[in-house]
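Below is how a single chain appears once it has passed through the pipeline. First comes the sequence as given, then the structure the pipeline wrote out for it. We keep one example in the README because the format questions we get most often are answered faster by looking than by reading.
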Amino acid sequence: MTHELRLHAATVSDASTIVLVHEPVPFEQVVAGEPATGHAVLDVSDAREVGVWEMTPGAMRDTEADEVFVVLFGAATVEFEHPIADPVILGPGSVVRLEAGMRTIWTVRQTLRKVYVSP
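Resulting structure:
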């Protein structure tokens, strides 16, 4: 489930403590376990969206949006089915750029939370 919060100029939001409502990953995307995801949009403009996304342990397939993200906490590996690329290991502080249409498999070992920016 996605909910929207609003960032206001000259204020602080702690993305690591925002309460997210989790929903199970759709069956057709599950690779292993019983992963769930939660999502909150923090800010939207004509040029970009900023949000927080979280996934609990398990593995899922996804088709990516164009985004840059920073991992706040957790541990995971992202494998690339298309285009083929080396897997990336994610942990706190990891910064990653994904392109729209990439097909991935996310394997989360410890609940992963990221802040993303997408056009």
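The chain has a mean pLDDT of 93.

See the next section for the split statistics.
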